[in-house]
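Dear colleague,

Following up on Tuesday's group meeting, I ran the structure prediction for the two-component complex that the binding team flagged. I've pasted the input sequences exactly as they went in, so you can double-check that nothing got truncated or mislabelled along the way. The structure tokens for the whole assembly follow below. Feel free to forward this to whoever is handling the docking comparison.

Inputs:
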Amino acid sequence: MGLDIPVFQAYRGTSPPRFASPAELECAKVLDYYGIPWLYEPRTFVLETDEDGRVIEAFAPDLYLPEQDLYVELTAMKQSLVTRKNRKVRKLRERYPDVKIKLFYKRDIERLAQHFRLDLAS
Amino acid sequence: MRELGAEIARDYEGCEPILIGSLKASLVFISDLSRAIPILHAIDFVELAGYGSAQMGGHEQIRVLKDLDADIGGRDVIVVEDVIDTGLTLNYLVRTFELREPRSVAAVTLLDRPYRRLVDDLPVRYVGFVVPDELFVGYGFDLDEQWRHLPDLRVLREI
């Protein structure tokens, strides 16, 4: 995607994050700016297995904030197209009730961008 | 405002708290709030460089543009915010102030958007209004430094 990745201060991962979208990068930069420790896709949650125990559905939320013990999933899709993402988050909550996750929708990200003057177009 | 002031006065009776306003948007709110708190209290201000003004990549970190004039060690601090949504600014302020060993730190906000919170461990004790996902201007709230002067809070329609 050719995103320009800066040197992060509050990133707590061991290998460099590989962001899938400008929205992910910009949100990470905001967290970093405020000194909030964060990781990128540190854990993949198994959502469904077949009868042989093979994983047939899994979900890796975009960001994890260890001090908040909170996973954040960003979706820049139109509201009408987020059904699949909603279903994954709902499944995760059902299967891992102790895991805290927040889903940020396109509108939330736009508000964030407006507030922090983020560049989501690059 | 009267309700917030009375609640704070009741909780801090005999304590002489210090209200700390985060510039610039909280300016009008802290002025009205101070006048609504009948007990002795002090006022100070802090200003942080906003993320958007930094022309930055993630390598930069938040900067304090104006630090406190007062020593808050051993004192009861009440951070006065115009609005709390992600909670990132308040989280930073609380972490910074706690290094100075105040007796307590609490926060009061005129507007709250708890559904937008990214950090939850915030000492938000007093909330004026929980508001919907609208843009507000006036009463110190701005959009690119415009509309702060309007005497009342107004909802800005989509731009």
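Strands of chain B lie at 18-22, 42-48, 64-66, 76-84, 104-112, 124-130, 135-137, 154-156.

Cheers,
M.
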